[in-house]
Amino acid sequence: xVRGFHVRAAKLSDLEKIxxxxxxxxxxxxxxxxxxxxxLTDQESLFLVVTDRAEEIVGYLVSxxxxxxxxxxxxxxxxxQRRSGAATMLLEELIASLQQRKIHEVELEVRLDNKxxxxxxxxxxxxxxxxxxxxxxxxSTALLMRKEIQ
Length: 150
Known about the structure:
Layout: E1 6-9, H1 15-25, H2 33-41, E2 45-51, E3 57-66, E4 69-77, H3 86-100, E5 105-111, H4 115-123, E6 127-132, E7 142-148
Parallel strand pairs: 4-5
Antiparallel strand pairs: 1-2, 2-3, 3-4, 5-7, 6-7
Helix pairs in contact: 1-2
């Protein structure tokens, strides 16, 4: 446990808490619970949660793996725990897991106006690839970012 947090694989019993964080984090277009449940049970998904000292879930990350490629679908941290290191721990565990699985590349989409997330991903070696206009359901623009896994 580092910084008071612990990262572990998500379980189906975590669904309600994950959905709560999803709704708090993505007010414009949160993923519906049935999709999160499907990702939790999908064999090609890498679904992680980060817990605090009280073992309460404070964030999650889900990535879909296809061959030697991964797509980071979502990363969210409870509003009260942001900038606490929880997202950093999730990304560190993601990269380590992808390296173990011999995944060569990971990409993600992030809202272009989410400067904090873009900065965090950049610190992890993700690079800007292209702008995707009207990517989100509310018409917002996304930035496609990619990282090669060493």
